[in-house]
Every structure is written in structure tokens, then in C-alpha cells.
Design goal:
By secondary structure, the protein is an alpha+beta fold. The protein has 22 helices and 26 strands. Among the domains are: 111 residues, Beta-Lactamase; 83 residues, Phosphorylase Kinase, domain 1, CATH 3.30.200; 239 residues, Transferase(Phosphotransferase), domain 1 (Orthogonal Bundle).
């Protein structure tokens, strides 16, 4: 009977259930459950949100540091190509006007570059720089008995206008950059210092030029070359923090401030004194350097610091800037720090915590509704956090990939583009990748045309099968907007560098090279494609396995198909007056149907007439003249319009008289034929020209044998700044430009 009684009453468990189900139990239990669940959710949500906010903030700070590292590195990497170009101009016998004009062209559009100079051993100094209001100016100074005579000029195209003559005590041989180049004997970087007169902080890359080149035991210093970087101009790279209230600063290990965009709002001392962090009197900077000093100055990698300054807490990322620059180790010892108030990063998290507390208090009145709302918020919050993390991981992974290739090392860079050595991820095959950085495309109206030219060049190269045309493996545009194509990695040098380095080449070798170039042009012309920019930088001599002197034709960036040629009745022919009044740059922009490079253009191309493959043969003949003689067919005198006029009207000079070595008479006849003014007087096509070259008899004593070729390549050693990609491939095709 006792058992029956317990069963009917339900026992202790039943009593508890009834108590909980009672009105009083509901009033007590549901609020308690909601408070318990709410507190649990509050704690879990706060930890998840706090962790996600911290992780996202660190990632944003890291991306900011890496972006600044990349931009400053990109700017400093310009030193190598600029010094190589200055080396060609470091000849005291060259016309000073011509040298100054070419030096001015070198620094145009170079971010961070404020000065380029050539200092000769007699104290003569030639420089190009950005003067007042960023105006392009050049100067030449010579040391006399009365002091240093300085002449300053403004430049408009290729015209120099003197605007000041002065006398000073400036002697470049007493400057630190000159003495550094003498002491090191190779390319080197100075420590940060204040520039002469302007008192702006900067750094200089200097390099000595010796004779003979490469220097031997009896080397003699000819000149010292420099490229100056204005740290103030480099500050533009750190003026774009992605986070609100964030500030970036570039500094040295010993506390010298190099770049700080917020400095213009402060009262700072002026003069030739380098600024230290104490001069700024900012709590965040004071706390940053105090923390660095406490850690022993270990800044060799990206790290994050939590700062407790007098005006609040800050989260900071610190990353080094340095390493290899232009083939040598740069003694920069620079660092970039991005400082952001903690309230900016964690403010939304604290607001969420307060909202959750109010929501939990309200849950006592409307328990069920608040419980549902909290549960829904929790699900939404977790989904948002998971989605943010997944998106961040996906973006980070995409940023490290470029198609199926992994970037290994930068081979060169131009105004907007870069060429990298890369490897296929699965095949481990080496290749060269040409790309355009998206931040370089500042003009939205030109992006479509740039993309079209880039696509056309890639398609043109991919359609070629001749082994003497550079092979392309892949083409695409990344999700980040980077245009790229993948091509074979060449081992050698372009023909412009070959002549600058070695001088005119033997006739037998040039004949073999030009015969190979004809094979590439023959295939292109058969397909109805005309190159239109044949020039020495676009002809590359390379080696592959045991083969040497293998010629590759590069840069089809302004290729034209037969369907794009203007109709005869619509040909836009330029008059002689239009020609002489319009040419003022070293490369021609579009005018009618005119595109190309002065010194290597057929008369009909200069005049904007209808073109065919014989215009390419004329340009190839100009390249052959360059290889044989070490100079252009017609000597440059002043503006480019003059040399264009010579190509149209002047007779071809005597080849044998221009060469320093043996010249077969049949080669002179071929040269006059291929450089004929009238296309009908030239060889009818590339195969005919190749046959004419092969028919030239070469005596045994002048033959370019395989043994001679192998010996030349065995002694060939690339220079410090040479790469396996032509300089033409480093430049990016812009609307109306030629590569």
C-alpha cells in the first residue's frame, strides 16, 4: 500500500516539477534561467568578440605595416636601375646639355627620388632634382680659382633655360656620399643625413665608376654616381592608415624620426638637426620608444606592443625596413610603427557588453522574449565572427598566390610594373612573371586600355611558336586587380646592354643573330602581325642548356594586326612642319597612326602612312647597324625631330667606315637595301632578308664559330644590377606609349 501511495503522489521528483510549474516557480525559475543563460552568453560573447576584435585589429595593423614596407621598398628599389642608366651618362666628353636632359628624364615619375647626380674626379658636378614647387631643374657646377661656379637650368622637353648662376664653396669630393663610394669601392647606402641647403632628411645610394670596367688591379676612379631619396616624400606612404585615429611613423633604431605625417601639426625645430622622438612631445611616441628600450631594442621581426601612455592605451605594430636593395645590403636600420588608440579598436566591443547588461536586466520583466532575443543575437554573433575569420583566412591565402605560381624574387621594376622570378607550385618550373601593380593605375579612364594592351601582348606572344619569340605560359588578372602574364625565364642580356657593355660586335656574329630574329618576324608577319617597335632592348641574346647566342624577340605591347591598319584613303600623313613641331620626347606617342622609338623607325612609320612587314625590317636593319657599329644609324643632335628627319631624307652612311672591325662588302649592300627609304626597294619579307644574310661569304679567319661563341659565354658574367629579363619587359604599356 505504501508503494501505491508513492506512485500516485509522484515522489520528490514530481513535487519539484510541480513547484517549478507553479506561478511562483515560473516567476522565479524563468528569470533565474534567463539571468544564468544571459550571463553565460554575455561572457561567451564578450570573449569571442574581444578575441575577434583583437585578432582583426592585429591583422589590420600587420597589413598596414606590410603595405608601408612594400611601398618604401618599391621606392628604394629604383636606385639600381637609375644608377645603371647614370653609368652610361658618366662620360665627361659627352655634351653636358644632352646629359642633363637625359638625367632629368630619369627622375620624372620616380616616387621618393629627389636628386640624381654625377660627380667627376675634377670636382665637376651634374645633377637633376626637383626644385621649388616640385619643379624639374638641372645644374652643372665646376670648380675654378674663384670658387665653385654653379649654373642652374629649368627644362622643358629637351630645352634647357638658365635661370641662375651663382658661386659657392660646394665640392662634391668632400661630401659623405663621394667619400663613401671611394672607401667602399662599390654601390653603398649612406646613413640618414640632412641634405645640403634644403636641410631635409634623406638617404643616398652612391656608386663609383672605374676605368677599366669591370675594374682590375689598375682601376682608376672616373666618377661617383648618386640617387637621393627624400624621406619627406617617402612620408606619403605612411599617411594612409586604414584604421580611424591611427598614425604611422618611420624611425631609426636610435630614435631618429624619419617620416611622421602628423608632424605638420606640431611646433618642431628647423635646421640641419635630425629630429628625435623627444622633439615631438607626444605621449604615444614617448611610450613607444620607452617600451622598445625596455625590450632591449629587438625589432628584427613584425611584433605587436600594448602601450600605456599618459593619454590612454594604444595598440602598436612595429616592423623593420631594410635588407637587400639594388644588389647590396642597405644599412637602413629603419622601422615603421602604426599606433592606434585601444578605444578605437575595442569601443564596439565595450558597447556590446553594455547593451548585453541592459538586455539582461530587462529580461527580468520579459523573460521569454529576452531569452529568444539573446539566443538569436548569439547565433548571429557567432556566424558573423566565423564568417569574418573565414573571409580573413581566404583573403590572406589569395594574397600569397598568383595563379598557379609562387613569386620567388624580384628581377626588376619600372614606373608601375614589376618582373619576378617565379616557380610553378606543382611542376617546380622556373618562369618570369610580368605584372602591373593595381595602385599604379591611378587614372580610371586608362584602365580599360591598359588591360586591353596587356591582354593583346599576352595573346600575341601565346600565338607564336617560333623558338626565337619569347614563350608565354599563362595570363590573368588576380582578384586584387593585378594584371600579369607568365613567360619563360631567359639567361642573357638585351642587345642594348650588350653593345653598352662590349661595344660593336663581329660581323659574322651579328649576321647569325639577325638571321634568327628574321625567323621570329617571319612567323609574326605570316600571321598578319606587325611588331612596330623593333629596337635593341627588345632583342635578347641568351643561352639555353648547351646552346648559346639564341636570339629572342620581346615586347609585343604595341603589335598591330593587318585588320587594324588604316585604309589608304584615310591615311593620316604628317607634314614635315608637323613632325618638327611635335616631337619632344624620347618615345613617340600616338599621332595619327604613329607609334615607335626614335632612331629605329621606318620613314613610312614616322609619317603615319600605311605599314607592312617591311617597316619591321627597316627597324631590324637599324638594330643590325647598332650591333655592328655601337651607335645608331644617324647621330643624335638635339631634339628627336632632327633624327626623324634624317631617317626620312638623309642617305644611309657608309657601314664599313662606321665599323671598327672587318666588314664584308656584301653586308654593306644588304644594309643599304634594308634601310632603303622606299619600302619597295627593301627585301620583300623577313625570309628574303634572312636568305640575303646567309648568302654573305665569311672567310674562316672572321667566322663566328661555336667555339668562339662558347668562349664568349664562358667569360660572360652579369653585372650587379643585370637580370634575366630585358629592361623593355619591366616597363608597362600605357596608352600611347611603346613599352
Amino acid at each position: 500500500m505504501a508503494s501505491s501511495k508513492d506512485s500516485s503522489t509522484g515522489g520528490p521528483a514530481f513535487s519539484v516539477a510541480r513547484a517549478l510549474a507553479s506561478p511562483i516557480g515560473v516567476l522565479i525559475t524563468i528569470p533565474l534561467l534567463v539571468i544564468t543563460v544571459g550571463v553565460g552568453i554575455l561572457l561567451v560573447g564578450r570573449d569571442a568578440t574581444h578575441g575577434a576584435s583583437q585578432s582583426m585589429a592585429r591583422r589590420q595593423l600587420a597589413e598596414q605595416a606590410i603595405a608601408i614596407q612594400t611601398d618604401i621598398t618599391f621606392a628604394l628599389d629604383q636606385a639600381g636601375p637609375l644608377l645603371e642608366r647614370l653609368r652610361v651618362l658618366a662620360d665627361p666628353t659627352r655634351s653636358a646639355d644632352d646629359v642633363l636632359v637625359r638625367m632629368a628624364d630619369l627622375i620624372v615619375g620616380r616616387p621618393g627620388v629627389s636628386y640624381a647626380s654625377i660627380s667627376f674626379t675634377d670636382g665637376t658636378f651634374r645633377g637633376a632634382y626637383l626644385g621649388e614647387q616640385r619643379r624639374l631643374e638641372v645644374q652643372e657646377s665646376k670648380i675654378t680659382d674663384q670658387g665653385t661656379n654653379v649654373e642652374r637650368f629649368t627644362i622643358d622637353g629637351s630645352k634647357l633655360t638658365k635661370f641662375r648662376t651663382e658661386t659657392s664653396d660646394y665640392d662634391p669630393r668632400r661630401r659623405g656620399f663621394y667619400q663613401l663610394a671611394e672607401r667602399v669601392g662599390a654601390r653603398a647606402w649612406t646613413e640618414p643625413y640632412t641634405f645640403f641647403r634644403s636641410f631635409e632628411t634623406g638617404i643616398t645610394c652612391s656608386e663609383p665608376v672605374y676605368s677599366p670596367s669591370p675594374p682590375g688591379p689598375d682601376k682608376r676612379l672616373l666618377a661617383v654616381l648618386t640617387v637621393d631619396f627624400d624621406v619627406g616624400a617617402l612620408s606619403s606612404y605612411v599617411a594612409r592608415p586604414a584604421l580611424d585615429e591611427a598614425r604611422s611613423v618611420v624611425f631609426t633604431r636610435d630614435g631618429i624620426i624619419l617620416a611622421y605625417p602628423s608632424a605638420d601639426k606640431l611646433a618642431l625645430p628647423t635646421g640641419d638637426k635630425l629630429l628625435r622622438h623627444e622633439d615631438f612631445r607626444e605621449p604615444a611616441l614617448t611610450s613607444l620608444f620607452k617600451s622598445i628600450a625596455q625590450d632591449g631594442g629587438a625589432l628584427d621581426r613584425l611584433q605587436f606592443l600594448e602601450l600605456d601612455a599618459s593619454d590612454g592605451a594604444y595598440l602598436t605594430s612595429v616592423a623593420p625596413i631594410g635588407g637587400k636593395r639594388a644588389g647590396v645590403t642597405v644599412p637602413l636600420d629603419w622601422f615603421v610603427a602604426t599606433v592606434v588608440p585601444e578605444r578605437t579598436l575595442l569601443g564596439p566591443t565595450h558597447a556590446l557588453e553594455r547593451s548585453s547588461v541592459f538586455a539582461s536586466a530587462g529580461a527580468l520583466a520579459i523573460a521569454v522574449a529576452i531569452a529568444l532575443i539573446l539566443a538569436w543575437n548569439l547565433v548571429r554573433m557567432r556566424r558573423q565572427v566565423a564568417a569574418s575569420r573565414a573571409e580573413a583566412r581566404s583573403a590572406e591565402q589569395r594574397a600569397k598566390e598568383l595563379g598557379s605560381y609562387r613569386l620567388v624574387a624580384k628581377l626588376g621594376a619600372g614606373g608601375m610594373g614589376e618582373v619576378w622570378r617565379a616557380e610553378h607550385r606543382l611542376l617546380a618550373r622556373s618562369a618570369a612573371i610580368k605584372l602591373i601593380r593595381p595602385e599604379a593605375l591611378t587614372d580610371p579612364e586608362s584602365v580599360a586600355e591598359i588591360r586591353e594592351r596587356f591582354r593583346r601582348e599576352a595573346q600575341t606572344l601565346a600565338s607564336m611558336r617560333c623558338r626565337h619569340t619569347i614563350a608565354i605560359f599563362d595570363y590573368g588578372v588576380t582578384e586584387a586587380g593585378v594584371f600579369y602574364y607568365v613567360m619563360e625565364l631567359l639567361d642573357g642580356l638585351d642587345m642594348e646592354s650588350l653593345v653598352v657593355r662590349e661595344g660593336g660586335q663581329p660581323a659574322a656574329r651579328v649576321i647569325k643573330m639577325m638571321t634568327q630574329a628574321c625567323a621570329s618576324l617571319a612567323e609574326a608577319h605570316d600571321a598578319g602581325l606587325f611588331h612596330r617597335d623593333i629596337k635593341p632592348p627588345n632583342l635578347f641574346v641568351s643561352r639555353a642548356a648547351d646552346e648559346v647566342d639564341v636570339i629572342k624577340l620581346l615586347d609585343f605591347g604595341i603589335v598591330q594586326t593587318i585588320n587594324e591598319l588604316p585604309a589608304p584613303q584615310r591615311t593620316n600623313v604628317l607634314t614635315r612642319e608637323q613632325l618638327l613641331s611635335s616631337m619632344s620626347s624620347s618615345k613617340l606617342t600616338q599621332m595619327g597612326a604613329m607609334l615607335g622609338t626614335p632612331g629605329f623607325m621606318a620613314p613610312e612609320q614616322i609619317l603615319g602612312m600605311q605599314l607592312d612587314g617591311r617597316a619591321d625590317l627597316y627597324a631590324l636593319g637599324c638594330c643590325m647597324w647598332w650591333l655592328l657599329t655601337g651607335g645608331e644609324v644617324f647621330e643624335r643632335e638635339g631634339a628627336d625631330a632632327k633624327i626623324l628627319h634624317k631617317h626620312i631624307y638623309d642617305p644611309v652612311p657608309d657601314l664599313a667606315a662606321a665599323m671598327q672591325s672587318w666588314c664584308p662588302p656584301q653586308l654593306d649592300a644588304v644594309m643599304k637595301a634594308v634601310l632603303a627609304k622606299d619600302p619597295d626597294d627593301r627585301p620583300r619579307d623577313a625570309r628574303h632578308l634572312a636568305a640575303m644574310l646567309r648568302a654573305i661569304p665569311i672567310p674562316a679567319e672572321h667566322a663566328w664559330t661555336d667555339a668562339k661563341a662558347q668562349a664568349w659565354w664562358a667569360s660572360y658574367k652579369p653585372g650587379a644590377a643585370e637580370t634575366s629579363v630585358s629592361p623593355s619587359e619591366i616597363q608597362v604599356i600605357m596608352p600611347g606609349a611603346t613599352g
